[in-house]
Write a structure and sequence with these properties.
4-stranded antiparallel β-sheet, alpha+beta, 12 helices
């Protein structure tokens, strides 16, 4: 059996705030390792744990082990968590996300029962089904997982293409052949911006991205590091998330370059009046800055931008991280499409 653990601090009774720093997250993963050695980190705030061996060792079933996880996390770190229990990673994750935070929820293990469990859920809960795919399926009346279950795979292939159709058909029945791969959290630097309410204004989303990029850039430069990959996570009011990953043209720690890429990633989601609860930006593939390469440019604008950034860093070092903030990169890209998550 698989546990999907989502860490968080309870906020406003029905939502979670990010658990804290990367160091806290690593300690939380270590705590899970005290229950089972088969733990796969899912930065910045979740993990899979295969408890097949732990059930025999502790003499408890998977639900009891989930309760043990919640108890230890709360007792040691004062952090609440949601735990989904399922026969595979897909069902464990969906169980965790299918309700309010701070609970244990179990998905059925039998294939027929799993399909019935998934049937009433919106199709967007399935992995790989983002807002764009939801908009593609909606005109065909495919709005719930049950709708997808009733459609032949050949029909789905005409709508989405053969590979995506096969993956979607399997996921709709609760079929997931992936295994939990023991994996420590990679070294990363993350920043989170939560909104006080469901935020529909793209301009506010844009400002949150700028704030995340500025925070990440400052932390990387302070430690003389650079990142090669950005991961953007957008959380919506219905507790679903969309994740996008982009490899940068070259490793960087410059806030403006990070903000430009983050803005492009956001624009690629094609959100239209999306009810966003928060955005998370994470820098990965981190390496010492002096070991990375940089394409030289003769553009004087870049040179001025780097000098201003260095001056801003000196001000932050003296007066604190909030002394200077990144200016807007212009108006955010206009979203396309007609529906929201």
């Amino acid at each position: 059996m698989i546990l999907y653990v989502h860490f968080g601090v309870r906020e406003h009774g029905d939502r979670f705030e990010y658990p804290g720093t990367e160091a806290v997250y690593r300690r939380l993963i270590g705590l899970l390792g005290g229950i089972t050695p088969v733990v796969q980190a899912l930065p910045p705030d979740a993990a899979f744990a295969d408890v097949a061996g732990a059930r025999r060792y502790f003499g408890r079933d998977a639900r009891d082990l989930a309760a043990l996880v919640r108890l230890r996390v709360a007792a040691v770190y004062g952090i609440d968590c949601t735990v989904g229990v399922g026969p595979n990673p897909l069902l464990a994750r969906i169980a965790a996300q299918n309700g309010p935070p701070g609970a244990i929820r179990c998905a059925p293990a039998e294939p027929g029962e799993a399909a019935a469990y998934l049937a009433p859920l919106p199709v967007g809960v399935l992995p790989g089904v983002g807002p764009a795919t939801v908009r593609t399926l909606s005109p065909y009346g495919l709005k719930t997982v049950g709708d997808v279950q009733r459609v032949p795979t050949a029909t789905l292939a005409r709508i989405l293409g053969a590979p995506a159709a096969r993956s979607l058909a399997d996921a709709a029945r609760g079929v997931d052949a992936t295994r939990v791969a023991p994996k420590a959290p990679p070294r990363s630097v993350g920043a989170v911006r939560e909104f006080g309410r469901d935020e529909l204004d793209p301009e506010q989303h844009h400002r949150a991205l700028l704030g995340c990029a500025e925070e990440i850039g400052w932390r990387l430069r302070r430690e003389r590091l650079a990142c090669g990959v950005l991961v953007l996570t957008v959380s919506y009011a219905d507790r679903t998330t969309t994740v996008r990953t982009r490899t940068l043209p070259e490793p960087t720690a410059h806030s403006r370059a990070l903000a430009t890429e983050a803005t492009r990633m956001y624009a690629s989601l094609a959100l239209q009046r999306a009810r966003v609860r928060g955005v998370t930006l994470r820098a990965e593939a981190i390496a010492p800055a002096d070991r990375t390469t940089h394409q030289l440019t003769l553009d004087p604008t870049d040179d001025r931008a780097y000098r201003l950034e260095a001056a801003a860093d000196r001000a932050r070092a003296r007066f604190g991280p909030d002394a200077v903030h990144l200016a807007a990169l212009g108006t955010p890209p206009a979203p396309t499409g007609n529906s929201a998550p």
